[in-house]
Each structure stands twice: as structure tokens, then as C-alpha cells.
Specification:
mainly alpha, de novo design (two linked rop proteins)
Length: 123
């Protein structure tokens, strides 16, 4: 049995840590979006961002590699959703293009890392 102060194994994963940083970035950015988008793009963007680390954590807790891969795949899909919503935000002038470019690099890095982890689970 794990001690209360021990870190769950998934928290040691770099992809989980980096996806948590992405969530912080998205929440910070979303605060700048127009208030009328609170239940539109803002809400959807936040949900998609939160889905990334939560699916990594949930999948890591599953009993099989196949289950973990499935949850990693869901995380990749959520990253694509975040990217698309950010592109919409740029088109709507809610987000500057250069700021999007920095976040896009973070997203692409996470996609690559998740893909690599998925391949390693296939062996």
C-alpha cells in the first residue's frame, strides 16, 4: 500500500507533467477571451486541455498496456482538439498568432511524446 505522501507513478511521467503545464497555460489564456465565450470556446478549450493529463493518469492506472494505449490515444485526440480550438481563437482575434505558435510547439511536442510512448507499449 502506498504511503499518503508518495507520488503516484503517473505523476513521474514527463508527458503528464508537461500536459499539466499546458492546462495552466490554457486556463491563463482563456481568462483573456471575451466573456461571451465563457460557455463556448473557452469552456470547450479548458475541457479538452484537462482531458489530456486526466486520460494519461486514468490510462496509467489500468491493468493492461492496451488500455493505457487507448487512453493515450484519447489524450492525443484532445491535444488535436485544443490545437483546433486555438486556431479558431486566432481566427476570431482572441489569441495573437505568435502566442498560438508557442503553444502549438508545446502541443506538437506532447503529441510526439505520447506517440513514442504508445509505440513503446506495443513492442
Amino acid at each position: 500500500m502506498a504511503h499518503e505522501n508518495q507520488q503516484p507513478n503517473y505523476e513521474k511521467l514527463r508527458i503528464w507533467q508537461e500536459s499539466m503545464s499546458l492546462v495552466e497555460t490554457i486556463y491563463y489564456l482563456a481568462q483573456k477571451f471575451p466573456k461571451e465565450e465563457q460557455f463556448g470556446i473557452t469552456s470547450q478549450l479548458q475541457r479538452a486541455a484537462v482531458s489530456v493529463p486526466t486520460n494519461i493518469a486514468e490510462g496509467h492506472g489500468k491493468s493492461s498496456k492496451a488500455d493505457f494505449k487507448r487512453f493515450l490515444s484519447i489524450s492525443k485526440g484532445s491535444l488535436q482538439e485544443v490545437n483546433t480550438l486555438l486556431q479558431i481563437a486566432v481566427r476570431m482575434n482572441y489569441l495573437p498568432q505568435d502566442e498560438y505558435g508557442r503553444i502549438r510547439e508545446q502541443i506538437l511536442s506532447l503529441v510526439r511524446q505520447i506517440t513514442s510512448l504508445m509505440k513503446s507499449l506495443s513492442f
